[in-house]
Design goal:
326 residues, alpha/beta, 4-stranded antiparallel β-sheet, 10 helices
């Protein structure tokens, strides 16, 4: 019997084994699911965890980027910024007029709700990789963008002032109006301490976005250890809304909204694992979206529709959690 590292209640359920299948190492790792808060957690973090983040993992190499927003004529840039401000909830007559004709192009995880952001709001991404999400925001006109990631080779600086530091939260100074973690929280070995560190860097009225896989979801119940988002051993903690709520409360945060955004990946990725096919197999939609040979178009379309239905019911296998200070 071991205590849950989230709710601290004794876990009576026996561990189960999950394999590393993204790259096909097939090494096995023990996980346990807490019957009280639902959190799935690895029993022991591997001492050689870096081995499971080889060069083919994620997007950690700098990419070509041209700051198209800054290079627009001043008048066009000014109009686009009014439109973006209107979409962010800072209503203005000109932005409302422009919205009748143009789309602001904001990422859905920002446009989903009014976050009271300004284009000069300081924004931090934790686990930023090479900064794809930050570059999306720069194209929308945001100006104060910083990222941090422990697995990049060195600091990255893009045109337009987008910077990414090598390291963890300890490498970051200052405070922020918006802190976002896109599929990074589940990789953190100390989620309780990480949430406290996030809270300490949050400005009054600010927001934390944690976009993460959801334990207890339909896909977990359907596929068990073959659930693709279990992603052993990189995912150390997979939370339910309840387990994340408990940790957030200890850190002085509360969940203001949950928005499910799962996709067909939960099905075709898990089906691959069930068939003992790694995610990086050349036949996989992950490696070859257009030329993949494992699943029919009809299957992929049906899974996409099922994902939308699960999201609407709050049963998708990943979600955006919007947190605010208590």
């Amino acid at each position: 019997m071991r205590p849950c590292r989230v709710c601290r209640q004794p876990i009576h359920r026996p561990p189960f084994q999950a394999r590393e299948m993204m790259f096909g190492f097939r090494d096995t790792f023990d996980y346990v699911e807490c019957e009280h808060c639902g959190c799935i957690q690895i029993c022991e973090v591997p001492s050689d965890l870096a081995r499971y983040y080889p060069p083919g993992y994620g997007a950690h190499e700098p990419r070509p980027f041209t700051d198209t927003h800054a290079r627009q004529p001043a008048w066009k840039r000014w109009l686009k910024e009014r439109l973006t401000e209107h979409a962010l909830g800072r209503r203005n007559p000109l932005g409302a007029l422009l919205a009748l004709r143009f789309r602001p192009g904001l990422p859905y995880w920002v446009a989903r709700r009014s976050l009271s952001l300004r284009l000069d709001s300081p924004i931090l991404e934790v686990g930023a990789g090479a900064g794809d999400k930050l570059l999306e925001l720069r194209r929308c006109g945001f100006r104060r963008l910083l990222g941090v990631d422990p697995f990049i080779a060195g600091p990255i600086e893009y045109e337009g002032g987008v910077r990414i530091l090598r390291g963890d939260l300890d490498a970051v100074d200052g405070s922020f109006d918006f802190i976002m973690l896109h599929h990074a929280f589940e990789h953190m070995p100390e989620p309780r301490a990480s949430l406290r560190a996030l809270r300490a860097r949050l400005r009054p009225g600010g927001w934390v976005l944690i976009r993460t896989p959801v334990a207890g979801s339909h896909a977990w119940k359907r596929y068990g250890p073959n659930w693709v988002q279990l992603d052993a051993p990189r995912h150390l903690f997979l939370h339910t809304p309840r387990s994340l709520e408990l940790l957030a409360a200890e850190a002085g945060l509360r969940i203001a909204e949950v928005f499910y955004d799962s996709r067909a990946f939960q099905f075709w990725g898990s089906e691959q694992y069930r068939r003992d096919i790694p995610l990086h197999d050349p036949r996989s939609p992950f490696r070859n979206p257009e030329g993949q040979t494992l699943f029919s178009r009809e299957q992929m379309a049906a899974w996409a529709r099922e994902a939308e239905a699960l999201n609407a019911r709050g049963e998708g296998d990943q979600a955006c959690f919007y947190l605010r200070a208590v």
